Amino acid sequence: MKAWGREVLASVLVNSIYEMENYPVVLLNTMLAPLSFLIVITFVSRGQLIGEAIEGGFIMSMFQSGMSLQADLSHLKNDFKLQDMVVSSPTTPGAYVTGMALGEIIYSLPALAVLTILAAIYIQPGVLESFELLGVFLLMFLGSVAIGFTLSTFSTDIVQSFAFSRLISTVFATLPPVYYPITYIPMPFRYAAYLSPTTYAAEIAQNATGLVQLSVTDIFSAWAILIAVSLFVFFIAVKKARWRDP
């Protein structure tokens, strides 16, 4: 267990602490996207959607953190051959990916801290609501980590990784209604929004804090779909990710 902990810590140091210490501008970069959308939605709605925008900022931050893993793993694998060294060492894929994923969360701490303060001021969730929100955001992060890790094992170039990371983040964290209620989308386009798991995450979060009112059936269905999607992408990661080059 101690060895596993050291392996995780080493991955965290490689993926976040080193870069944050030498290139602090990376912290600013992780804050721009979620907070800029929050500001725009808040201004356009004249403050009426600030609660939804804050929760959307959390969802985008967590999803982008997981997807950023793809570019970082690809960079270390292809440019520094780090994965080859890890494969030949006693380090397990689980310890390596866990540490790298925790490093992505550390990158996002400034944005998450700002969003937490705003949530405490404008949303004021109770204990149960806070746990429900935490569960939703954690599922978003874990699902995107699985996607990011799988794609990184197939990626052969950092430019390709950045392209896929940005494309997937846009499709799942920007286009769906995570910063506003889905009722703002006219029919029949609303059906397309439900193709994204982030839509269900936003509905659960908004319902938990009283921003929207959903039936018990709708909430149960949203949780079931979100959990099923997370399990599916983890299954794909386990079965299809190429830890060792053929």
What this model shows, in words?
The chain is mainly alpha-helical. It has one domain. Helix content is 78%, strand content 0%. It has eleven helices and no strands. It has helices at 2-22, 25-44, 50-78, 82-87, 93-107, 109-122, 127-154, 158-173, 189-193, 197-208, 216-240. The model has no long low-confidence stretch (mean pLDDT 82).
Summarize the structure.
The chain contains 11 helices and no strands. It has helices at residues 2-22, 25-44, 50-78, 82-87, 93-107, 109-122, 127-154, 158-173, 189-193, 197-208, 216-240.
Q: Can you lay out the helices and strands and say which pair or pack?
A:
Elements: H1 2-22, H2 25-44, H3 50-78, H4 82-87, H5 93-107, H6 109-122, H7 127-154, H8 158-173, H9 189-193, H10 197-208, H11 216-240
Helix pairs in contact: 1-5, 2-3, 2-6, 3-5, 3-6, 3-7, 3-8, 3-10, 7-10, 7-11, 10-11
